[in-house]
Design a protein that fits this description.
The complex is a heterodimer.
Chain A (H helix, E strand, L loop, with lengths): L1 H11 L6 H28 L6 H30 L12 H53 L4 H17 L1 H20 L6 E2 H19 L3 E7 L7 E2 L3 H13 L7 E9 L3 E9 L11 H14 L4 E7 L3 E9 L2
Parallel strand pairs in A: 2-4
Antiparallel strand pairs in A: 1-3, 4-5, 5-7, 6-7
Helix pairs in contact in A: 1-2, 2-3, 3-4, 5-6, 5-7, 6-7, 7-8
Chain B lengths: L1 E6 L3 H11 L5 E7 L2 H11 L3 E5 L7 H7 L5 E6 L3 H10 L3 E3 L4 H14 L1 H6 L2 H6 L9 E6 L2 E6 L5 E5 L2 E5 L6 E2 L3 H7 L5 E3 L4 E4 L3 E6 L5 E5 L4 E4 L1 H12 L1
Parallel strand pairs in B: 1-2, 1-3, 3-4, 4-5
Antiparallel strand pairs in B: 6-7, 8-9, 8-12, 9-10, 11-12, 13-14, 14-15
Helix pairs in contact in B: 2-3
The chains are: A alpha+beta, B alpha/beta.
């Protein structure tokens, strides 16, 4: 392209195309390539491409000026050397010098701009890609930490109850250990899965409530209203578990006389509806850290975007109801 | 014998602790309570030397229960796992056991009681307790909770009680937390030989006075060990001089 432009310029200047012209042309081309190559090395070496545009452009302009002048000097010197006719034109700041510089500029400025913006666009594209990758990683990590959250208070209380049961009711102690193992195992496995069958999750919750029943005895009553056709529905693992844990932690355990936890699972037209109802007041629910509610909301958002719904409300002044709508897939 | 009450909302947890305590013949379990209100009732009627206290209980936490008591017995806290409570323990070096309780840790905690408590069996003889049951003794401790922090404070270490509305602000070492008790109620329970009502707003500990200066209108100005300056009203100055002149 450079050559074509230069030929055009020279043709426009009305020079004769002869042997001398060809020689001049090659000098021109070599000088152009040499100087721009140097310029490119400078751009890469100085990390100019990494700078923001407003900082890079002045430097680029300055660079272009230097290269143009360098090119002019090369060109005029070369032509002078070759010019056998001996009309010794000196290297000085003459109108001719300026003219040649401008001529060089016409070639070098477009070259620089194309070079710079090509790299600029490529760089911003990889940057965007990196940001997306990072976001995905953050989401994945978030999900992992939310999932692996199992309340240590529960684990140690359960172990303490089981130790007391070993003498009092050895058979129950044995089943309690199985129940606790199931919960611990599932909380570890969920790190690998996005969703599980509702039935599997329900079994964990049943084990969990059986253990809490050992602890609370007749202070905890449990009711299940489970529709058969919801058992095979996929749901996020440990989500129901977290909500039931909340119902115990902030609901039942705060009531001197205990209360009831009810779990309802129904199939609706476009979603799977899950309800967790417990004795208690909403002002008591999750005001400690709110981790259960926050994590439930953010997990639903991460997994289903805006398609899933989650509500929590107080009914009759002595019950709290959490409701979950999971879109059918 | 160390007369002991176990306070925990879980029957199995209480049983487990009782079983562990069988190893310690000096511990006599005189009662159990399943929540804070029952606990307060048992402590008020039985006046135990020691309580094992669960933190997480329905209604009120163990901390809440303690701060309602006029005077606190020795306490060993029991908790399964509780970030918040553990932080309070670390700050104030209260003794606590993690459930399930390790027998060796339990032995240590009871051992520690024996060491620091000459007063349990010896210093305080039973007659004295019987005579002044409602009066708070200098060696009695109160449990004070202020936001996240809590302390056991010996009455002897309290320099000053200051009335702040329905609350009283108590001054000891570098702390001054609030307790939900009126100054008048406190005055009735405190030993008047040690704690003197200087004016409408202040009760001072006579043993912790640094300096006494005359003040306007024939009053006095007391400077306490912590640097607090308390004015003694004219009427109380007469009483103060009477007490101090023997």
């Amino acid at each position: 392209m450079l050559v074509v432009v230069l030929i055009l310029i020279n043709v426009l200047y009305g020079q004769r195309i002869d042997k001398q012209f060809h020689l001049t042309l090659w000098i021109l081309v070599l000088a152009g390539i040499g100087s721009t190559h140097l310029f490119r090395m400078y751009i890469q070496g100085s990390g100019l491409l990494l700078l923001p545009v407003e900082k890079a452009l002045p430097r680029l302009a300055f660079g272009v000026l230097i290269v143009c002048l360098l090119d002019t000097v090369l060109r005029i010197s070369a032509i002078n050397l070759l010019d056998a006719s001996g009309s010794n034109r000196k290297l000085e700041l003459s109108p001719r010098f300026l003219l040649v510089t401008v001529e060089n500029g016409l070639c070098i400025i477009p070259w620089t701009l194309i070079y710079y913006f090509f790299h600029y666009i490529e760089k911003s594209r990889t940057q965007q890609l990196d940001t997306l990758k990072l976001e995905a990683l953050v989401k994945e990590l978030e999900l992992k930490t939310i999932k692996s959250h199992i309340n240590p208070h529960f684990i140690f209380n359960a172990l303490n109850s089981i130790r007391a049961l070993i003498d009092e009711n050895p058979l129950r102690a044995r089943t309690a250990i199985t129940e606790l193992s199931n919960i611990l195992r599932s909380s570890m496995q969920t790190e690998k899965q996005e969703t599980v069958f509702f039935e599997k999750e329900l079994n964990i919750v049943k084990d969990y409530l059986a253990l809490e029943h050992i602890r609370f005895e007749d202070r905890l009553k449990v009711q299940y209203e489970i529709a058969e056709n919801t058992l095979a529905q996929p749901i996020p693992p440990m989500m129901l578990q977290t909500l039931v844990e909340n119902a115990i932690k902030h609901g039942i355990s705060k009531q001197v006389n205990g209360g009831t936890v009810t779990i309802v699972s129904q199939m609706k037209e476009s979603y799977h509806k899950l309800v967790i109802r417990n004795t208690g007041r909403l002002s008591n629910m999750g005001n400690e850290d709110g981790f259960g509610l926050i994590s439930t909301r953010s997990r639903l958002q991460l997994l289903f975007g805006g398609q899933a719904n989650f509500y929590i409300r107080e009914i009759n002044g002595n019950m709290v109801e959490a409701e979950l709508h999971i879109p059918l897939t | 014998m160390i007369r002991t009450v176990i306070i925990d909302d879980e029957r199995l947890a209480r049983n487990e602790l009782k079983k562990l305590l069988q190893e310690f013949p000096e511990i006599e379990i005189i009662a159990e309570a399943a929540n804070a209100n029952e606990g307060i009732e048992k402590i008020d009627t039985l006046n135990p030397d020691l309580i094992f206290l669960d933190i997480q209980m329905p209604g009120k936490t163990g901390f809440d229960m303690l701060s309602e008591l006029d005077k606190a017995p020795d306490v060993i806290f029991t908790t399964a796992y509780d970030d918040y409570a553990l932080k309070a323990f670390e700050v104030n070096a209260l003794d606590y056991l993690l459930k399930p309780v390790e027998p060796r840790r339990l032995a240590d905690a009871i051992q520690k009681l024996h060491l620091e408590d000459g007063r349990l069996g010896l210093a305080e003889n039973d007659e004295e307790i019987a005579v002044n049951k409602s009066l708070l003794h200098e060696t009695d401790q109160v449990f004070v909770k202020d936001g996240e922090r809590c302390w056991f404070v010996k009455l002897a270490d309290i320099r000053l009680f200051e009335s702040v509305g329905n609350y009283a602000k108590i001054y000891f070492s570098s702390h001054k937390p609030l307790i939900l008790k009126s100054l008048n109620a406190l005055e009735e329970r405190l030993d008047e030989k040690v704690f003197f009502r200087a004016n409408r707003k202040h009760i001072v500990n006579l043993r912790l006075i640094e300096k006494i200066e005359p003040y306007f209108n024939g009053g006095l100005l007391l400077e306490l060990k912590g640097g607090e300056k308390i004015e003694v009203s004219r009427r109380q100055t007469v009483k103060f001089k009477e007490m101090m002149s023997l």
